[in-house]
Write the structure tokens for this entry.
Amino acid sequence: MLQTRPAVRRIAGNLVFLAASLLAVSFIIFAVMAAVPGDPAEIMLGTSAAPDTLAALRSELGLDQPFLLRYGDWLAGLMHGDLGLSYTYSTPVAALIGERLAVTLPLAGYAVALSLAIALPLGVFAGQRPGGPVDIVATFFSQIGIAVPGFWIGLLLILGVALTLGWFPTGGFPGWQAGFLPAITALTLPAIALAIPQAAVLTRVTRTAVIEVAREDFVRTARAKGASRMRALWRHVVPNALIPVVTMLGMQISVLMAGTVLVENVFTLPGLGTLAYQALAQRDLIVIQNVALLFAVIVMGLNFAVDTLYAVIDPRLKATR
């Protein structure tokens, strides 16, 4: 029980820090949106609207209230699921975001699963025999994957796989109501485009971690006691090598979420990235404000989950009393 206390304290501290960080980020986002030139009432009604009509709409939207009062109202609305009304679509922002989350979250999860499925075995076997054939392949893959951005990989996949071979659609999303297979097929190429740059980074980190852990004394001791190379690898090397991999995965989440904005537009997916791009083009500030905060919540929440996992798997934290 004493061994679990450091991990519990770490998790509790991270949770407090997460709440404080989200509050600070929400204030920054709201302040930036409030400072952007333009009148939301004019965006909704048009520049030809009568002054008294504009004034009535500003009052209805609370735009005539002091800054801090409007910020407090926005936070109160967030707590109740009321994100405001879209200036462009005159639709609750919560409904717009809810529809798009059904695309973006599965896409991001699919991409993370693919990146781990590629990076972990490739990095482990490359690190097991540095300079070998697998290591050469892993090094080449890492260099190419890091150098080429995800949206460019998406364009290549459309040209080389979707148009030439016809194995996958070039874009669009049929909706989950069309069935799991059509929906996941539509997300496959975008997920690959997002996964390759992430897998390239994780492959390099995994390879380096495996090489470093394999040189530790406890691995030599296990080998001296008769453990085979593969048993020492999977029982002693890989569990300890996962610690930096998990840390890097948390750092890459923000990059992955940023990449969804471009990749969703390349594949014309109706996700959060496309919604943010459209809202920016239409100056729908309330949508941009809430989407930006949601991206921050997703990134910080996943980082918290990764850091919690780090506290659980790190043997140094388990051993601390």
Observations:
- The chain has a mean pLDDT of 82.
